[in-house]
Design brief:
Radius of gyration: 20 Å
Structural class: mainly alpha
CATH topology: Growth Hormone, Chain: A
CATH architecture: Up-down Bundle
CATH superfamily: MFS general substrate transporter like domains
Helix content: over 70%
Strand order of the largest sheet: 1-2
Number of strands: 2
CATH class: Mainly Alpha
Shape: globular
Distance between the termini: 22 Å
Length: 415
């Protein structure tokens, strides 16, 4: 029997189901970028750098749109934001079916689809902050598990769909999958401006956000940790094809990554349940594991080692991703979680956009993605260095103590 004071009751469980579906669809579409990339490049015969820029731009724009999606969630409610994001996803896939030049794909994939992914991500995570407070870490870990499920199912499924129906037909099928985002929207309550009945919110002020100790360096840690994951998902399959690996087998690397993601998420859920307030320590451990696995992935060509490093890389993301969001949740105490998450995501997107241009140039100059994976491994090492050298973040490594005076406090009403 669930305790009577548990937050996993009534609307909490309903919101959790909607969050799981939202993250499944958003990251499922994101994980198909690597599968569709080679087929679009083959049909239009554009320079390899142009195709690379297209998908690098798409991987960056969904993050750049984070602030806009956070504003929509905060002002229009999570249900309306989910409807808007689902519509953008569906329209993006249908337009991709009819697109007849590469520049239309910049609009269909780079703008519409990416905006839909950003909405799924923002809504799927921030809606949990409405219904969960004491058990936010556990709820976030459960919902984030579906990011790993999306990594397992979508790449191989749509590689098979492309073989049977062509990549344009696969886009129509993907549009049908995206329609399920409306189900997620229905599961979200129309909370509007009264979305936290047990918390008195303060007006979000940029000065208050900047004044939080450790938040700005943490934004760089988050960026240098997240860009490698997005880059890996986007370019792992093309890199494997460069090594002479069959397309279906290459797509299986992302599925292996997804299995690792699920494994890391399960370990993280158990860890969170038994050991409270260790999010920063989890982040550091995951970053070290991710950097090691990326170095292996960049410097070996044996398929068995590629599979092993893909699994460990996915495991590190599964172990780390919930902790990253929880840290932002704690740092945003007293402010709008949706807005701060959106600002942080937009910051990552801008850096990722610049990095995508660099990737495109390197791909055009050297004709290979090998140097790209070396660079993202160095980015992870930089994230570790910033974390351990910044005093406010280093102090958090033993775990968060909410009695710290430098953190804003939540004002609670008596329920």
């Amino acid at each position: 029997m669930m305790p009577t004071n548990s937050e996993f009751r009534r609307y909490g469980c309903q919101a959790l189901c909607g969050s799981c579906l939202s993250l499944l669809l958003g990251f499922g579409v994101l994980n198909t970028f690597s599968v569709f990339q080679d087929h679009i490049g083959t049909e239009f015969e554009n320079p390899s750098s142009t195709i690379t820029w297209l998908f690098a731009f798409a991987a960056a724009f969904w993050q750049i749109a984070g602030f806009a999606c956070g504003w929509i969630s905060c002002n229009l409610g999570h249900r309306n934001a989910a409807f808007i994001g689902g519509t953008a996803l569906v329209c993006g896939q249908i337009w991709s079916y009819f697109a007849n030049d590469i520049y239309q794909y910049f609009l269909s994939i780079g703008i519409l689809t990416s905006f839909g992914i950003s909405s799924c991500y923002n809504v799927g995570l921030t809606v949990l902050g409405v219904h969960f407070k004491k058990e936010f870490e556990l709820a976030n870990s459960i919902a984030s598990t579906f990011v790993g499920i999306a990594s397992i199912v979508f790449p191989m499924l749509f590689d098979l769909e492309i073989e049977h129906f062509g990549y344009r037909g696969a886009y129509l099928i993907l549009a049908g999958f995206c329609l399920h985002m409306y189900i997620a929207a229905i599961l979200f309550r129309p909370t509007g401006h009264h979305r936290r009945k047990h918390i008195t919110l303060k007006t979000t002020n940029i000065k208050d956000i900047v004044a939080v100790p450790g938040l700005l360096p943490y934004m760089f840690v988050y960026a240098f940790f997240y860009i490698p994951y997005i880059t890996w998902i986007t370019f792992a399959v093309p890199y494997a094809l460069e090594l002479g690996i069959d397309s279906l087998v290459a797509a299986s690397l992302i599925s292996v990554y997804g299995f690792g993601n699920i494994g890391g998420r399960c370990v993280q859920i158990v860890f969170t349940y038994f050991v409270k307030n260790k999010s920063m320590a989890q982040l550091l451990a995951g970053l070290c594991l991710a950097a090691t696995s990326l170095v292996v992935f960049a410097f070996v060509q044996d398929f068995g080692l590629l599979v092993g490093s893909s699994f460990m890389f996915g495991f590190s993301l599964g172990f780390v991703l919930p902790s990253v969001t929880v840290i932002i949740w704690y740092l945003s105490i007293g402010n709008d979680f949706e807005v701060i998450l959106g600002v942080n995501t937009t910051f990552i997107g801008l850096l990722n956009l610049c990095f995508g241009i660099v990737i495109g140039e390197l791909r055009g100059l050297f004709g290979s993605y090998h140097l790209t994976f070396i660079i993202i491994a160095l980015m992870l090492l930089m994230a570790i260095l910033i974390l351990v050298c910044t005093k406010p973040l280093r102090r958090m490594l033993p775990g968060f103590d909410l009695s710290y005076t430098e953190f804003p406090r939540q004002d609670e009403d008596n329920d």
